[in-house]
Specification:
Blueprint: H1 12-28, H2 33-46, H3 53-56, H4 66-80
Helix pairs in contact: 1-2, 1-4
Length: 88
Amino acid sequence: MPLPARFSEYTEVEFVQLLEALAKEDCEAENDKRADLLLLHFETVSEHPSGSDLIYYPEPGADNSPEGVTQNVKEWRAAQGLPGFKRG
């Protein structure tokens, strides 16, 4: 199944699932090809300036769980006037 091309094509649940899949690939994969693909996709669709640092090098006290990263991206996008998640 292809990944949605834009952030606004994701529901919030689907975006959390993307981050969960990335975490699983990081832990279980024998090579990083799929994890690299998912990470690049996350950085591209989220457009967040901190990119992968939200996951791997979060600010002190920040929640870098899939749900926490999703909330961070959601709030940042709203503050920037960028489209949010699709409803559904």
